[in-house]
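Milestone M4 deliverable, item 7.
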Amino acid sequence: MAGETLEPESGRTIGIPWNRLPFDSETAQGFATVLPVILLYLVIAVAPVTFALYASFYSIPLMNPTWEFVGLQNYLEVLRLDRFWASLWRGVVYMVGSTLFQLVVGLWMALALNRLDRGQKIVTAVVFSAYLVPIIVVSLLGLFMFDTFTGVLHVIGSDWFGLWGTEEFVLGNQDWAMGLLILLGSWKYSVFIAIFTLAQLTAIPSRFYEASKVCGANKWEMFRDITLPRLKGVLLVAVLLRSIFMFNKFDIFWQTTQGGPGYATTTLPVLTYRETFIGGSYGVGNAMAIIMFLFLAAAALMYFRAFDPSEEVQT
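Output delivered:
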């Protein structure tokens, strides 16, 4: 096979000698198809991480950006910071708390939507629209609802349940700030879990439930033996994604508390921002970002090793 031919304007036929090349035409077409994705990934992922890694080995004062090579000094400085380890712990608390909340609420929403006989598409569209709300709107709404003068949640917590003082701004309370931010941000992202779960629920054949009814199974037994095993793979993937996203959260913290009161809501992304742009140490900030990246990579590898969500999805 001589290969494909091209017809230029002169009318002369030019052949592409695929048989002389180390790859065939289908391989070339496939590579050309994925090449834009590879280039985009290099630009938005590999290049920034590479630059951050390179900058982490230099001392770079932000107001006088002269690069001085210091080797691993930035990493040693980060690991010696008490507030680094405290911020890491707070980030883990926020990640675990918000992911569990989203898992429970998202699974409940998906099961409820799947049981609707009429108007399911309309109700589903209304519920899923919450995921489109910008996080700045969520933050402003939360600040308004916890306002000491007009906030409805402030009144419920202070006057109805006596959880905090009537004139106390609860997001400025070290005991309540992190827990309330978990609840404030999680209602929006619970829809993410619901989207994954509902798509898998609709793929479960109804004959499985009909057969279980004939055998005398109740609703809990049907959920335990039919629904949950078929949702396990999707839920494992969704939990992994939500955990990574929640650990990297910065916007809702900065828009509501800016990491306060004190350091009560300062997670690693917030601390990295403070060290880089407020503390003025660009090299230390990049070293902190690289350590955070390595922590997430190690945690993801352990997660895959323990649960293997890809195998569950295929099953």
